[in-house]
Amino acid sequence: MVLTAIFTIKAGTATGTETSVSLMGAQCNGKSVTTVSGTVSVNNFMLGDANNDGVVNTGDALIILRYLAERITEDRLDMAAADVNGSGGVTTADAMYIMKAIAGLENEYGLDV
Ligand SMILES: [Ca+2]
Ligand SMILES: [Ca+2]
């Protein structure tokens, strides 16, 4: 990684608020830089915190797997937080992303573990 951009959301910003972000290409140290612009969305959940207890840990991966095994119903987990990869559904892949982040192997979605 060559750059980390940190955004500060203004106090009182409502959930669901979005703003566009434009990144400008540049020349840095004689190298061309390619950027991708996008949006910043304000969410009311912590990504990966499937059981909504304020932390991302193995309990979140476990509750996803229990849901997928039909041991618990959808109302027992925060579906938006559980959809780690933003695929629109909760699958074993989401549990895997949580476990990889906890294990320190890969944190592709920037989970706060
Ligand atoms: Ca949790
Ligand atoms: Ca998913």
Shape: globular
Query: Roughly what is the average pLDDT, rounded to an integer?
Result: 90
Please give the largest β-sheet. 2 strands, antiparallel
Please give the share of residues in helix.
10-25%
Poorly predicted runs: none
Number of beta strands = 4
Cofactors and ligands present? calcium ion
Radius of gyration: 17 Å
Distance N to C terminus? 19 Å
| Order of H and E elements | EEEEHHH
What is the strand and helix layout of this fold?
Blueprint (H helix, E strand, L loop, with lengths): L17 E4 L4 E3 L2 E3 L4 E4 L16 H11 L10 H4 L9 H12 L10
Antiparallel strand pairs: 1-4, 2-3
Helix pairs in contact: 1-3
The protein binds calcium ion (CA) (2 copies).
One calcium ion (CA) binds next to helix 1.
Q: How would you describe this structure to a colleague?
A:
- With 113 residues, the protein is α+β, with helices and mostly antiparallel strands.
- It is 24% helix and 12% strand.
- It is built from 3 helices and 4 strands.
- It has helices spanning 58-68, 79-82, 92-103, and strands spanning 18-21, 26-28, 31-33, 38-41.
- The strands form 2 sheets. A two-stranded antiparallel ribbon has the order 1-4. A two-stranded antiparallel ribbon has the order 2-3.
- Strand 2 and strand 3 form a beta hairpin.
- It binds calcium ion (2 copies).
- Residues 49, 51, 53, 55-57, 59-60 line the site of one calcium ion.
- The site of one calcium ion has 8 residues, from helix 1.
